[in-house]
Amino acid sequence: MQTASKRFSDFVVQYAIYLVLVVLVAVISIQDPSFLSIGSLRNILLSSSTKLIIALGSAFILVSGGVDLSAGRVVGLAAVVAGSMLQISDYARRFYPDLAPLPLFVPILIAVALGALVGLLNGLAVAKLRIPPFIATLGSMVIVYGLNLIYFDREPNNSQPIGGLRPDFTQLGSGDIAGIPVIVIIALSVAALVWFVFNKTVLGKNMYAIGGNREAAKVSGINVDGTLVKIYLIASALAGLAGVLEAARSGGAKSNYGEMYELDAIAACVVGGVSTTGGIGTAQGVIAGVLIFSVINYGLTFIGMDPNLQFIVKGLIIICAVAIDVRKYWAKT
Q: How confident is the model at residue 330 (pLDDT cuts 50, 70, 90)?
């Protein structure tokens, strides 16, 4: 029979990530009670939305035992492509001066499809050519950024920030439905879909099996190559969607959008309990990881902490959160 202290210790270890989030909110709220206002909550959710979508995509690949360094550049490419085709007709510096207004879904689908194409190529490189994921996605990261710069620099834009986006497009990033931001609704819908894939589909089960032991998964009859290609395709498509929403949220687009987003996504996944060696991770853990980073970024600035000191606090929180969280996996081995 377990003692009360042992039960408490097990509870802390099991729910470490969520406890860290609660403690963070409590500490910042003590410093400034207005942090608990609806406005602050809204700002945190808005800043978390696109990052959550990218992190959920990264979780697919991390659980399968890989890594994707191209996600941030896919975000930038998708933002530029969608923004370039969704400017108002009387904007003085249109990317496509003679382009007739397109249905909203067309540029969005094109941008997401481009992201999916990058993921398809990443998946083929990893699965068929046996290139290590780090190297394959590092190469595609550089290629995608180069292609984006070439596209962004074409006449008549000449590398100028893309502005004048259509209201029906920016509504995706700034509009509300029943008081809830549209972008938050989209992010939560993606999170629910990812949770379903992780827990209720053959693809999800295969993904965990591959991340746990690739050779054993192959012996058990799982199509490892096909599964990996699907996983990389989905992850990059989600990065493309995040890029579209980032352009809608900011009301513009530049070629450097999404820079370092892939590292933020990986860090959020790891803090949320996704193992870098594969086979372990949950959608709800990723959500908690993203929220922890958003609370850190917004909350420490909110209470006026020295920006230089914030880096130290963030690093300590990440190390402590992960150190506590991994203990529950040690107990299983």
A: low
